[in-house]
Design the sequence.
């Protein structure tokens, strides 16, 4: 229920966490942070992991912990390190100061570092926390020992007065139980909550709360940092990500309601809505755009009334077939979504917010009262997502839809970025490495913050299994393998190298990449074709069963072979630059050898393109795109091939995910202007009222999938033409593709500053270009096949 968190969310409380001077300076450097006392990196900590009495391991539960202490004066600095299994929210004197821990695994268990000083006073103080472990009902991305536990460690001896041990008080909160309601398609984001208000310990976090009936906490095991000791517990590491960005917002409007009167401009403005005794009422609220965060429901009275909050990305025209239709329309449509349930206790001024954030555009409130009326005093929300700051710019006034595409894509990318990248915020909340490669590129083209990119690379390493490949997604408490995603993870490392550098860090990933390539090599047959790769070899949602490429019984798959070549070439370049010359030579030699066999095995002269299998009976854009990206075909032949596969309607097309690679083939072959015609799938989704990009064209399970937001890369890389031409973006290559646009300008962030461009085409092949490069950065400008050298600073040129 957490009234303090909600009541004060719009005030100064939440920003205290983000503005904390220690948190602001945290940066991941291996497992060390500069603002942690060095003594904590060796041996056991003096703080213990604590639990509440009577809480059994492996069971669903919510617990509260409190510690009262006195200070002679208000401190100027009071730094602590805090964590829990599975999640916590920490309060100081009733003020929320931290939530976490950021998702990880038991061998890399994150803790947050927080300065409590802004909330402390001279005299009596109270530190309190709510901790929850949803056991087998938790989100799949939540790894856990299954032991509900909390930890708080003072950074230096002066802060150790608040160390967790048996001096803390504890209470199990029996108001909570899991609430599960099925949705369509694969779901992995965990159960919602059912909360019985009469059993809730209201005010537990406040200093004036009477906790005399609470019992002493149970000390489980002294804490320790990863590698600091021979230690069987949670291997603690500093959190690699900052606190999530939060903002209190109003919900704009009611779209439907039954058996209730809607006053004024509710819910855009606060106004009470009363449901009479022994009645049922329903309201459908529309946020107008998809969002992620915590709803804040204020209510009074209605003892025994049941309130449900349902969450949906869209309503359904045909639930059986999964048809949603226009997302803006609600008439005659069906609500399908998960929901939280609250049983009211009759008191006034109650408030509910779920422990974990939700995803919704449409929020349905259902009320069933008993013998008393219930009043909904207000409904608001606190949005929550990773604090990405967009620093890219794009202006093309001739086509306003381009800006709408960018805004929708940016919203999609933001909602799919929390403590890690995630495929979708509604259904799964899992970081898949195939998705994450595209998400990382969106991050690097639009922001200066590469922490999530580094985090995704690191979690790929952590997911590596002894067989030699990564899991398809991580963190995840349920293993799954998509071997193609292991290869995309290697290429994501190459992307990071090209756009941010980081050779010293990437060198540590070379053994993992070698392991993956070696795992694939075991399936290489004498004819240099891969045998049938096991597990789920996902390619794209393009009409094949489970999204896999067309393959024959023994393998015989051009997609498999070419994706392996693609990763071999990326690994070879990195090995040559900062790894092993012998490994680089091996990988490049193997890639060349496999490439040389592609035409004899897969080329179909009649169609003028590569077939999917030896039988040459099926053709896809995917295989031919990879052939272009791998250099199997080059120059004019590659350009002609690209046109054939996009013009031939018998060729299986790329869906939303693989259009990223189709667009790269456009750029590589000098056909960037084809991007404009390829925007139809995004224009179609806008016409359907989507406010984020769907997983695939209709019908789509998920309405928010960041792998579909590739225009937020390609508008800068293809239309503006700005791209890296050397590792670390140390050189730039600018080759614009304006299509029919006459005036375009924009900029992308660069490690040394910002790259800005301004173009004005004369319609006869001429172009006036203004280009601004950061200090120390040089490069090349390309127009109509002719190259011009660029130096740091501003250059204005007219070219034909």
Sequence:
């Amino acid at each position: 229920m957490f009234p303090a968190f909600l009541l004060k969310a719009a005030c100064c409380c939440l920003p205290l966490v983000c503005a904390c001077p220690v948190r602001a300076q945290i940066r991941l450097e291996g497992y060390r942070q500069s603002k942690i006392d060095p003594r904590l990196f060796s041996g056991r900590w003096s703080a213990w992991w604590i639990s509440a009495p009577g809480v059994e391991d492996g069971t669903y539960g919510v617990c509260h912990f409190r510690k009262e202490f006195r200070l002679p004066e208000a401190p100027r600095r009071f730094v602590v390190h805090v964590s829990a299994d599975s999640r916590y929210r920490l309060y100081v004197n009733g003020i929320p100061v931290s939530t976490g821990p950021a998702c990880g695994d038991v061998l890399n268990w994150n803790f947050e570092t927080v300065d409590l000083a802004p909330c402390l006073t001279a005299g009596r103080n109270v530190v309190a926390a709510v901790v929850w472990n949803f056991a087998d009902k938790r989100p799949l991305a939540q790894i856990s020992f299954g032991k509900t536990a909390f930890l708080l460690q003072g950074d230096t001896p002066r802060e150790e007065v608040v160390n967790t041990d048996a001096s803390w008080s504890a209470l199990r909160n029996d108001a909570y139980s899991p609430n599960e309601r099925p949705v369509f398609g694969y779901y992995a984001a965990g159960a919602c909550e059912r909360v019985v208000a009469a059993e809730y310990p209201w005010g537990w976090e406040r200093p004036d709360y009477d906790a005399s009936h609470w019992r002493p906490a149970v000390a489980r095991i002294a804490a320790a940092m990863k590698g600091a000791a021979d230690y069987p517990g949670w291997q603690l590491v500093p959190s690699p990500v900052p606190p999530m960005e939060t903002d209190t917002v109003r919900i704009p409007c009611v779209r439907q309601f039954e058996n209730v009167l809607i006053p004024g401009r509710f819910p855009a403005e606060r106004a009470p809505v009363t449901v009479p005794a022994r009645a049922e009422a329903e309201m459908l609220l529309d946020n107008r755009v998809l969002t992620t965060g915590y709803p804040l429901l204020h209510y009074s009275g209605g003892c025994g009334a049941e309130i449900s909050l349902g969450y949906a990305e869209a309503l359904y025209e045909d639930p059986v077939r999964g048809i949603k239709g226009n997302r803006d329309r609600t008439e005659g449509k069906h609500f399908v979504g998960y929901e939280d349930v609250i049983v009211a206790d009759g008191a006034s001024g109650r408030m509910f917010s779920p422990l974990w954030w939700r995803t919704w555009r449409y929020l349905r409130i259902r009320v069933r009262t008993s013998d008393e009326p219930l009043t909904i005093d207000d409904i608001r929300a606190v949005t929550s997502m990773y604090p990405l700051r967009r620093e890219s710019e794009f202006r093309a006034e001739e086509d306003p839809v381009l800006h709408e595409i960018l805004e929708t894509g940016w919203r999609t990318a933001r909602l799919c970025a929390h403590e890690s990248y995630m495929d979708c915020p509604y259904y799964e909340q899992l970081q898949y490495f195939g998705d994450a490669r595209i998400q990382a590129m969106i991050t690097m083209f639009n922001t200066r913050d590469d922490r999530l990119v580094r985090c995704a690379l690191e979690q790929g390493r952590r997911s590596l299994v002894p067989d030699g490949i990564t899991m398809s997604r991580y963190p995840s408490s349920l293993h799954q393998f998509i071997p193609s995603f292991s290869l995309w993870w290697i290429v994501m490392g190459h992307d990071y190298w090209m756009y941010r550098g980081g050779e010293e860090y990437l060198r540590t990933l070379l053994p993992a990449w070698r392991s993956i390539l070696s795992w694939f090599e075991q399936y290489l047959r004498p004819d240099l074709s891969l045998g049938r790769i096991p597990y789920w070899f996902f390619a794209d949602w393009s009409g094949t069963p489970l999204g896999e490429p067309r393959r024959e019984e023994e393998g015989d798959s051009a997609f498999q072979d070419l994706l392996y070549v693609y990763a071999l070439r990326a690994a070879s370049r990195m090995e040559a630059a900062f790894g092993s010359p012998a490994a680089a030579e091996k990988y490049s030699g193997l890639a060349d050898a496999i490439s040389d066999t592609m035409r004899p095995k897969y080329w179909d002269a009649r169609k003028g393109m590569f077939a999917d299998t030896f039988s040459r009976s099926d053709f896809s854009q995917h295989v031919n795109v990879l052939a272009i990206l791998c250099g199997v075909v080059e120059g004019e032949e590659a350009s002609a091939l690209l046109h054939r596969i996009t013009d031939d309607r018998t060729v299986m097309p790329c869906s939303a995910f693989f259009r990223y690679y189709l667009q790269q083939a456009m750029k590589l072959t000098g056909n960037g202007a084809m991007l404009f015609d390829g925007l139809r799938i995004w224009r179609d989704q806008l016409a359907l009222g989507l406010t984020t990009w769907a997983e695939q064209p209709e019908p789509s399970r998920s309405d928010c999938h960041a792998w579909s937001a590739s225009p937020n890369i390609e508008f800068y890389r293809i239309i503006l033409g700005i791209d890296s031409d050397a590792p670390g973006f140390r050189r730039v290559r600018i080759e614009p593709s304006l299509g029919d646009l006459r005036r375009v300008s924009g900029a992308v962030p660069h490690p040394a500053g910002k790259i800005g461009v301004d173009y004005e085409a004369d319609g006869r092949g001429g172009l006036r270009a203004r280009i601004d490069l950061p200090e120390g950065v040089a490069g090349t400008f390309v127009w109509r096949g002719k190259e011009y050298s660029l130096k740091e600073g501003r250059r204005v040129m007219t070219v034909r």
